[in-house]
Amino acid sequence: MRAKKSKKTPILKGIGVSSGVVEGKAYLVERQKISAPQYYIEKSKTPNEIKRLERAIALAREQIKSAHRKVDPQEGRDIIYYILDAQLMILKDDMLIRSITDHIEKDRINAEWALEKVLKRFGDIFNSLEDKYLQEKKNDIDYVGERLLRNLMGREQETISQIQDEVILVAHDFSPADTAQMAKGKILGFATDMGSRISHTAIMARSLEIPAVVGLENVTEYVKTGDFIVVDGLAGEVIINPTSVMVSKYKEKERSYRFSFEELLKSRDLSAETRDGFRVKLKANIELIEEVPSIREHGAEGIGLYRTEFLYLNRKKPPSEEEHFRNYREAVENVAPHSATIRTLDLGGDKYASQIELAEELRSSPGLRAIRLCLKDVDLFKTQLRGMLRASAYGKLKIMLPMISEIKELHQTKEILEEVKDELRTKGIPFDDKIQLGIMIETPSASLTADILAPEVDFFSIGTNDLIQYSMAIDRVNEHVAYLYDPFHPAILRLIKRVVAAAKESKIKVGICGEMAGEEIYLPILLGLGLEELSMNSISIPRVKKIIRSITYKEARELVERASALKTAAEVEGLVRNDIKRRFPEINYSLKEEIAYGA
Question: pLDDT tens-digit profile of 294-309?
């Protein structure tokens, strides 16, 4: 995103991924991308070239292990262990290494050139994926590739551990090894050219509770080491060399944010209940077990969505039953007395980010994903279900199925689940015999047949991310049709309303686990539609709880009735924004209008 020029001060707009405001001196991490030399070699020199590659790989492993040892788990950095481990696994990947050596031997080219060819091929594969979450996994391969290239060329990389002063880091992007080296208390915030809300840098910033803005595109072109900058993680802005008046206003904004957030946390143990008694459960979406402490800290009532895909990524063999069991047991034990809703594998078709060995037919069909993949590879499915059932003996665990599109899939799944239960009974292994089974509603077909599906399950969870994408026939990451990705579209509201009605008719619970659950702008509408459970990023929970406790269910229902009469998403959004602004003016508070021109 381009800088917004004021009379005196450049203001860059990006994506705020970790809340808070911080000001201080910038430290520009300059890592110019190095070009790989390209030249042909004689056949007799290929063994030596392969040895060069092997030495570079061995050195890279040691470098990453060194970063791993510097991670202090007491500082809330457990998540970094996982990502560094993933990079180590890439360096052990036979397919990756074999691909590079094949180019050296067959093309008779130097190791750097061979590495570059393989990285480009892998990059093209990842860029072709529709799932933005999985596209982010390409970063791990890029970091490993850059490290290997520097090792091959004898180029040292600047280390963040050398920084001694309190600074705000500015860079094109950061690797997990970078974040592992950050001295506690020295790094005040992040600002990067690259990144998204689900990039590892964003996850790390939230884990360390450091204000961060990513996706700025060109912040490294504007900022020099020593510049005084402000990073506003609330508005997603970076202000370069602000005036003293602007600095004062941002300091006040940060004080106000800290005070309000601390006040919000004081009510974390209160229920999310409207003034007229409508009770909503606020739960957390997680991807890693290390996120559980944040759940408790922010007052979540358990886990509403545990995405299990991380267990399958960057590995050659799928996780074992024991790995599933250990992860899920830790989850349910740590959120007790609340429940943990664990989603079965949601990968497949063109959505692979690892080298898991599966039949070629399972890889070659773009539509063969999620529950469809599991029904095709029953052994893979049963392994995960056994781990889930075993863990259910240690706490409240719910199983959730993704991408259900017809009742036949649900019947097949229930048959497999009963088979697994029988296997465990035969072996005398304990589990919750009445474990709840639910489905994600994320396809138009599931929405339109919700009345048929509801009697067959214990709960619905609406996955708005995919539901909107499939209903509007768009690719979320395609900028040309991104404008159609709008939760306020009348069609989406009607689908949600239909699903809620079907759930209530069958007396089952219904909630939302898509991104809109944690956005204040959508909350009155979701309440008015009758959603009983909202699952979101845990940091959003205190603010969402405050809004719920400040309004009535009757008011929310009246708002939905008014919205139902409108014809466009823009009209609905305008209606809701005006209502929220009237009730909660602080939610829309932003300094950008006041200071855009150097006030």
Answer: 888 889 999 999 988 8
Pick the closest to residue 41 from 113, 109, 104, 118 (CA basis). Answer: 109
List the one residue out of 554, 546, 464 whose CA is nearest residue 282: 546
According to the 3-state scheme, what is the secondary structure of 500-531?
HHHHHHCCCEEEECCHHHHCHHHHHHHHHHCC
Residues in CB range of 380: below 8 A, 6 or more apart: 318, 345, 358, 373, 374
- CATH class of domain segment(s) 267-565: alpha beta
| Alpha-carbon span 68 to 81, nearest angstrom | 6
Q: What class does CATH assign to 3-31+159-263?
A: alpha beta
Q: In the chain, what are the domain boundaries?
A: 3-31+159-263, 43-153, 267-565
Separation of CA 214 from chain center: 14
Q: Among all residues, which ones are annotated catalytic?
A: 200, 513
What is the torsional sign of CA 38, 44, 45, 49?
positive
Architecture of the domain made up of 43-153: Orthogonal Bundle (1.10)
Side chain identity at residue 58, one-letter code:
A
Low-confidence stretches of the chain (pLDDT < 70) are: 1-9, 31-33, 68, 70-83, 127-139, 156-159, 161-162, 175-185, 198-200, 203-204, 207-208, 313-316, 348-367, 475-484, 586-599
| Nearest-angstrom CA–CA distance, 36 and 152 | 9
Beta strand segments in 363-435, E: 396-401
Q: 507 Cβ partners below 8 Å, 6+ apart?
A: none
DSSP H/E element including 315: none
Q: What is the pLDDT of residue 159?
A: 64
For 470, list phi and psi in degrees, rounded to 5.
Answer: -75, -35
